[in-house]
Amino acid sequence: xxxxxxxxxxxxxxxxxxxxxxxxxxxxxxxxxxxxxxxxxxxxxxxxxxxxxxxxxxxxxxxxxxxxxxxxxxxxxxxxxxxxxxxxxxxxxxxxxxxxxxxxxxxxxxxxxxxxxxxxxxxxxxxxxxxxxxxxxxxxxxxxxxxxxxxxxxxxxxxxxxxxxxxxxxxxxxxxxxxxxxxxxxxxxxxxxxxxxxxxxxxxxxxxxxxxxxxxxxxxxxxxxxxxxxxxxxxxxxxxxxxxxxxxxxxxxxxxxxxxxxxxxxxxxxxxxxxxxxxxxxxxxxxxxxxxxxxxxxxxxxxxxxxxxxxxxxxxxxxxxxxxxxxxxxxxxxxxxxxxxxxxxxxxxxxxxxxxxxxxxxxxxxxxxxxx
Length: 372
What we know:
5-stranded parallel β-sheet, TIM Barrel, 12 helices, 37% helix, 4-stranded mixed β-sheet, 20% strand, globular, alpha/beta, Enolase-like, domain 1
């Protein structure tokens, strides 16, 4: 008679002890001028979720509107009484907080706060298990194709073309250009100058940051179609799925949206509407790693490639397990406050093999750049 198997050991439980958020303004190597304004420093909120068992999970949030930094910090601190003592299980925390904030709706600072907690909880769980997040999610940390998104703001044709060449550092063969100049002619001139400067072996994506109405997006898209751009990103309002669907049907160039999905439900609605050819959820805006993975599953079920938006440290882990993984958006904006920033080699960014996300703060730098 076979010996009965021992029941599987339960995973150790970790319980929320404290939640800390700190605002910093990190220096940026390159100013990023977009159609909606210029970003000269990286406004970040650093989140630390400490457990009673001694493990601390970390995440950060990018808040391009500096006046929103302090309110977000205050909101995260005010959230602690809602989860203090709870098991630090990411999806349980997410469901609990979504229910608590249901009457406020699922966008803005509330979703950002939940995302910061979700990602920090996943980081804590990965550390507790001694596994990088990709392994915790059933995959293997691996290098993922990346494009350089640290510059190429609205600077005119000559300066933008020169910076485009500089963005080929670290072996990048894909870069992203911001468009949305006052006229179609300027957009075309800048795009043409960049494509010429980097040569035929480099793919150029472009991003309008939602600055066009639908007819103008179609008009400019047709003018750009012949330049060989890899994709046109957010040509019009991100939540106008019908308008984006019209644009996607009209243009030869692929249409990319997704950084302004505020939930996996938004991703589902956009995909159902045919609003894009590609999606790129933002780990903060969509509500954290848990929601990002749900959106990636929806995209994979429809054969739609999924890329990341910002947060390369978490995004490299997420893309390592996404079935239709496409590109990682590389920015180095958190590097000044990280002990060991991730590196790009041959245009690929490897997911960190350390437990959790692998992030740790450089506390001396945090103190230097902290917003009082």
